[in-house]
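User: Okay, second chain of the day. Same drill as before: sequence in, structure tokens out.
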Amino acid sequence: MSSLKSNHLEILKLLRDRTGSFVSGEALAEKIGISRPGVWKHINRLKQMGYEVQSRPGLGYMLMAIPDSLADGEIVHNLGTKWLAHSYHYLTTIGSTNDYALKLAAEGAPHGAVVVAEQQTKGRGRLKREWMSFPNRGIYLSMLLRDLLPTRVAPQTSFIGSLAMVKMLREAFGIGASIKWPNDVLIRGRKVAGILTETQSDQDFSRFIVVGIGINVNHGREEMEGPFRYPATSIAIETGSVVMRQKVLLEFLGRFEHEYERFLQAGLPALLPEIEQCSEMIGKTITVVYGDRQIVGKAEGISAEGALLLLREDGAREQVWAGDVMHIEGGF
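Assistant: Same drill. Structure tokens below.
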């Protein structure tokens, strides 16, 4: 981290620690080891970023309000994780956080590195479908995982992302979210988050995994009425009020780390009862489309490897490894 950036974060931390009180420019300069003009420069930078800082001659500076930003200063110092997001890369605009994370992985970024953007211009979901990324409304993040997992196991991390998202929404916001196999999170049948896992592997083991997630947070109803493949919603729509994205991100990172460690220790089968309990589809008649094929049947469960277990209309049972669930009984 550059000294310029670390000074900027340190001033923010000092002001935050004294919220409601003035901190003199002299004290800030002495604490950080920079000049008074240097402090003034960093204070102006904070103001440009949306922080409301009151300046008063003879008293100094006081932090009055913080912006709804996912920048380092709002996340890094508030992390409750042991290893996830301790290497934190914040961007205002990027083509794709997954692409950026893949680049960082190739350059040697550490396990647990996280990329977060306020806006994506080339965000994508499964099968290279576009993910609409409204600026400063949602959370667009990618997490780098470097554990050596068998190639057949690595894609199962999508389930961990879905489970963590559902638990976070239920526990932190009281929202009855559910999982739509293989990689979506729904609220009342409407999509609130999608997950895209990309893996670089050798013959038998993954070299690294990038788990990308897009979350609709403060989108309004009009923004959710666009040309989406599935009906969409946001956390703000479901709660009836704007929420702080910092809270959503911090809660999710903590929950994902916990569920991922459980996954490493016990494997997907140990988590399947919870995943199935959170499923939108289990026990319902669904329509799955894969290429030119359309399968209709009752979703009976998920296999130990992550396949959807389907009882077809003709009475035969089938494991479905890939496809889009285009209809759920009573939904869509």
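The mean pLDDT is 89.

User: Thanks, on to the next one.
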